[in-house]
Each structure stands twice: as C-alpha cells, then as structure tokens.
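Q: Entry one of two.
A:
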Amino acid sequence: MAEFAYTARSMTGEQVAGSISAGNRREALAALGERALFPMAVDDAAPAKPAWRPVKKIKTELIASNLTQLADLLQNGVPLLGALNVLVEQAAHPVLAEVLADVRDQVVEGAPLEEAMEKHPQVFGDLTVSMVRAGSEGAFLEDALKRTADFLELQEELKGRVTGAMAYPAFLAVAGFLVTVVLVVFFVPKFAELYTQLEQKGGLPTATVALLWLSDTLGRYGVLLIVGAVGLTGWAQKAIQRPRGRELVDRWKLKLPVAGPIFLGTAVSRFCRVLGTLLRNGVPILRALEISQSSTGNSVLAKAVSESAENVSSGDTLSKPLGACGLIPPPVMAMIRIAEESNNLENVLINVADGIDRKINRQMDIMVRLVEPVMLMIMGTVIMFVLVALLLPVFDMSSTM
C-alpha cells in the first residue's frame, strides 16, 4: 500500500487535507469519494528517491524487443493494460521490469502511454516517445511501435559496427597516451641534471625546454590537473543538460569537419521519417511538425522546424521556411518542394530518410577508415617530438666535441 497526500473539499465546502493509504492513485480517489470528499489534489506522499543510485544499463536490443512484443500483443487484440502486465511479468532485466511496472501504474491512473514513457528518458528516448505519441493520436500505435523498434535495432547495429571498427584505433590512442605519459613523467627527469649542465654551457633547443617544462608541470601538478579535468567534465555534463548548453553543443556538432555532416544527416533523417509516417497515417501537418521536431535529436534543427510550423500555420508551404533555415541539404529541399506540388509529401519524406540513412552508412565507413591512420600519425608525431627533444642536446654536444 502506498501513502497519498490529498487536498479535498467536504460536502459543506470546507477544505480538508490529510493522507490516505491505497494501492494506487485511482484507489485513493475512490476512497476519498466514499468519504464524501471531493479531491482537489492527490499526490504521492512517499519520501523522494535519492537523486542518484547505481542502476544496470538496459541494452537497446532489449528495449526494441519489448516494443515489438507490445506491438504484437496490441495487434492481436490484447488490451494495453494486459499487454503491459505481460511485459512486466516476463521482463528478465530488473530495472526494465521496474520501469515497465511504473509505466503500467501510470496508465492505470489515466496517463497516456507516451507521457508515462516520457518520465523514463534513460530507457525511452525522444524518438520513442514521439512515435508513440503520434501512434496514439493517429490510431496506428502498433505500427509506430514496430517502426520504432526497427529503427532502434538499425541504430544499434550501426553503433556496433562503429564500436568494432574503433576498437583498434582506441587501443592505439590509449597505448600512445600511456607511453607518452611514462616518457614525460618518469623518463625525462632522469636527464634533468645533464640538461642543466648543457644549459649553463650553451643553452638548450626550444623543443627540449618545452619538454622539460611539461615534465616538471605534470610531475608537480599532475594530481591537481586530473582533479580539475574530472571537475570540468562534471560541470560540462550539467551545462549540456540545460537548453542553452545543449543548443551550443548541437550547433558545434554540426560544424565538425567529418562528423558534422553525419550528425546533420541523422537528425534530418529522423525528422523526415517521423514526419512522413505521421502524414501517411492522417495526422494534420501542424501537429505532425510539433511531434516530429522533438524526434530530431538536435535542438538546432528542432528550433528551425518549430519556426517552420509557425509559418505553415499562416498559410506558407513547408519547403519555404525549411529551406530558409539552411540546415536541410538542397537536394532534399528540392524533393520536398516537388512532393508538395504533387501532393505526395509523406511518401517522399520516407524515401528521403531511407536515402539519407544509406548515405550516412557510407560516410560512417569512410570516417572509421580514416580514424586509424590519423591516430597512428598523431601518436607517432607525439612520440617523435619527445624523442627528438631528448636527443637534440646530445647531438649538439657531440658536434661541439
């Protein structure tokens, strides 16, 4: 039994407040009605959970599998609450079982499915919530759940490919960093006395002076630098969670030399796919734009879509304000413009999303292939700098003898 705090009015109009024990919020409302009280507010009186607790990460494949099972149950005539009960009972992951149970309890209390999912962003992302909201409003929830599951599986497959391809470059980066730190912190100081004598005789090369300074700094303040880096990372994570910080990061991501087009293509693809799916299932364009803007995963593009929706509401075409934002590639804008004229926008948007996804796969393959030689060059350059800075004074000394 849970404890609920309530504020209600009696039959005489007097306002009363108190607490009541019930299985859920609906039972608490029914109990207040039996006491001839008209509830004004009923909230959970249980103590708040701690802000942080260690949880097991839920794999994307497991989330996609549960979405597919939910769609199959609904498609075969099982009511939503019954389907959620089945998922809760068979959930093997303890955290997922807890999340699904909370979603079920919220649905029991009358909350829409998308709102219940939205309260668990660590499990159900923006795209999932947007698609479920669209499916609920357009009466194609089963199809929306299956499309979302397919997209999550495709995204996880691409992520697995990238992770596998990046394993060797990441190993090179870590190995190179550790070798450099060992050389600078432990190996360079052994030459300090020799370099001091050489400096008194005729000075040291600039590279050697820089290396000695770096070695001395890391030896004295290495711990403080590590603590500062950890603190800066924590501050940056909190700043990114704010709207202004997230917008700055999203804008910066779009300007990256090689990864920027991939980030932009991914956001545009998600927007086109969700908008096309909504329009194909009869959702009005203004409502479809409102839902699809939150599925882009990029606040800069979402802001541009929001401004486009305002222009569309005033009678403008969709292609005109979208083209003015400068984020949608010109070929895509040309296809959208022609699709509007031919009244075939929903099909063209989905085809555009498929084409962008294929292009992103090619770009990802190229980027992954470039990472390995780039890491080798960086690691070789750093180690070469350390060795040259160490040996230059020795060469100078031998030439003067």
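Q: Entry two of two.
A:
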Amino acid sequence: MSRPLGTTGALLAGLALAAPAAAQAPAAAEAPVESLGFDEAVERATARSPNVGEAAQAILRAEALLDGARSVFLPLAYGNVGTTVLDEARGFDDNIVQPRTQTAFSVTVSYALLDAVRWAGRSQAADRVTTARAAAREARRHVAVVAAQAYLAVTSAERQREIARRNRDTGRALEDYARARLEAGQGSRLNHVRAVQQRASADALVQVAELAVRRAQEALGVAVFADGPVGTRGEPRLPPAVPPGDEAWLLERPDVQRLRAELFARNRLVADAWKSWLPRTTASFTPRYVTPAGLFEPSKSWRALFLLEVPLFDGTLGAEKSARIADREAARLRLDGLQVQARSELRTAREAVRRSEEIVTGTREAAEAAAEALRITEIAYRAGATTNIEVVQAQQAARNGEIEAAVAEDRLRQARLDLLVALGQFP
C-alpha cells in the first residue's frame, strides 16, 4: 500500500533504503567473516608478525656472534700444502740443494695465551644476546597490544551496531503502529510521518554502524595478519591487574628491560676500554714434512713461535673510549626518560580505571532510567494519553543512554588493558 511521506521523512527513508540496496549485490558474494577469541587473536598476531620474526632472527644473529666470540678460548689449527717447481734443480758438486719439484706439508696450531680484548669481546657478545632477547619481548608486546586494541575496537563497533539495530526495530514497530492507527481512522497523519522519519533515520544509523564494524574487522584482520576481515568471538577476558607494592613492576616491562640491558652493555664497553692497552701473547707450533728433502732442508722439521705484542701508541683508543662513554650516557638518559614515562602511564591508567568504573555505574543507571521512561511513554502513547513526539524524544534519550553506557564500558575495558600494559603484565 503506498502512502505519501513528508519531504524530510521521504528523503531519510530514501537514503536509508537505497544504501542497503546498493550494498546487497557485493555483500551476497562476500565470504563469511572469520571469528577469533581474544587470546587466539593476540596469539595469532604475535605468531605471524614480521616484526616478531625479525626480532627472533636478531637473537639468532647475536647468538652466532657469541659463538664466534667464544672461539678465542679454542686453539686455531690449519694445514698447508705447497708444491714448488723450478726450471732445474739447484746444487753443487753433484749434491742437490733444492730439488726441481718439491712438495711441503705443514700444520700450524696456535693459541692465544693472553688476549684481553678478545676475551672481553665474549662478554660483550653475551650482552648483545641479552639485549636482542629483550628487544624481541618488546616487539611481541607491541604487536600484542595492537591486536588487543583492534579486538576491543571490533567489540565496541559491534555493540554500537546492536544498539542501532534495536533502535531500528523499535522505530519499525512504532511506524507499523502509527500506520495501523492512521488506516483505522484513529491516528493522525503527523504522527505517522514522524514515525516514518524516525524509522528512516534508524535505518541510516544501522548502515553507519555496519560500516564501522567492517572497518574495525578489517583493522583486526591486518593486526592478526589475516587475508580478510576478522570478527570477534566473545568478550575479551582480561586478567585483573596486580597492584604494585614497590617499583619492581618496572622490571616487568619489556621496554624497560631492553633499555636496562642496553645500558648494562654500554657500561661494560666503557669498563673494558683499558684492556686495549694490555699486551697480547700468542703461541704456535708448526710441524713440517718436505718431499723430496733438500741438502739444507730435512724432510721432517718443526717450529715453535711465541709472539708478544705490546701496544705503545694508538691514537684511536682515546677517541673510541670517548664515543663509548657518549653512547653509555645516551642509553642512561633514554632509560631515565622511559622510567618517568612508565610511572606516568601507571598513574594515568590506575586513575582511568577508577574513573571509568564510576562512569560506567552512572551511565548504566541513566540508561536503565531512560529505557524505563521509554516503556512508560510508549504505554501512554498507545493509550492515547500523549502524542508520538514524547515517544520520539524518549527513544532518542534511550538510544543516547545506551550508547553512553556502551562507550563507558568500552573505555573501562580499554583502561584495564592500559593498566596491564603499564604494569608489564600483558601479554
């Protein structure tokens, strides 16, 4: 049955109905959206993240360098085989001094008896491994936080969509009731047009909410490195934050651990700078076999060598030490700045949780009161005691109350996540 609409109601209704019609064709061909739980999303993000994988490779590289630095405590052995061919043999009085073709075999074994610089390099390489592991934990934490925030964004958008759908259903019911009264000759054309306008506006808000959900799902899909949008499965389960009794919580943060490890490594580099002036002593032993033997060169021989190197002057050592000191102080400043920021983040997160809990309590109470007012207004309207103007106003108030309550709950959930992150207890 066709019915005329007011100009505003017709425009809103046309926009609301045209948008779904335009989206129906591509939506029908879309694959179902994959859904993940909160823990599953965080785990997949950290498992598939290229940043986490790159950090893991940095650990392997640092461990390889450590293995190379440990070789200073192992002997070095290598063999040589050489063949010398002359234009003719050398000799006198029928004695061959140097055969025309002569092959020599030798093996050299050397060991560093004293090499303080290379010995210090072993500890420095171990520090790099510790720093790389801390950096990997920090990278994993960053990826996990991004995935968790994307998950919370999807749940928030889905809650807003659910509110929009309920408001649309309420608007449709009111429109049907107003049309039935108009057709029965008991209602007014004005009430019917107002109901149509509210329903059309609610349809448009549903489309806005659907778009927000899809965008959030796409962001979550990117965060977990999926090939398409990803939905949520259930509310996120965040463990309660353990209140800190002292500042030991700072050591739980991966970013603080990384900078502390870096500062420790820089301190060692400065402390080991004086070892560059220590002498280096190397011993080597080389057995040799020559065939055929010469007059002055027996077929079997050996040689032992003890080498002592004493640095007398090296103009680069002072500049190198100054650079190491500058790097150490820069690392110290970065750590101090991060600790100040971490304490501020903790204070802010704790205050945000406290305030958000109070806001949630207030908004829930307001939303329940607005919903009750809407039910009373609808009963009064159906009894003919009021017009649908009051119903429309009550609907708007109830919708706004639901939205404010949902936003407050989402902010509380985000504040609790921020508190866990600030304490170093997530993931």
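A: Comment on entry two: The chain has one domain: 33-422. The helical segments are 7-29, 38-48, 50-70, 116-183, 189-223, 254-271, 315-382, 388-422.
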